[in-house]
Amino acid sequence: MATPEPVSVLQRWSDSGGTWRVIARGPATVTVALLTCTGEEVERVGLAAGPELLEYLAEAEDQN
């Protein structure tokens, strides 16, 4: 089974009513907390810090 693209993971989570928050950034990975619609943390995921993800995160930060 192929690993889903990092941006797809965050978009699917948001589309399902959840939210997410960046909690750490490293040279190769970004750690994101996946939160329920009530703000409870479900899990933390490490996502590959590729250009597409970094651009998506920058756009999301600009909207907040």
What can you tell me about this protein's structure?
The structure is a single chain. This protein has about 60 residues and is of the alpha+beta class. The chain has one domain (about 5-64). About 35% of the residues lie in helices and about 35% in strands. It has helices spanning about 5-15, 50-64, and strands spanning about 20-25, 30-35, 40-50. It is globular, with a radius of gyration of 11 Å. The model has no long low-confidence stretch (mean pLDDT about 90).
Topology:
Blueprint: H1 6-15, E1 19-25, E2 29-35, E3 41-48, H2 51-63
Antiparallel strand pairs: 1-2, 2-3
Keywords:
single chain; 64 residues; alpha+beta; three-stranded antiparallel sheet; globular
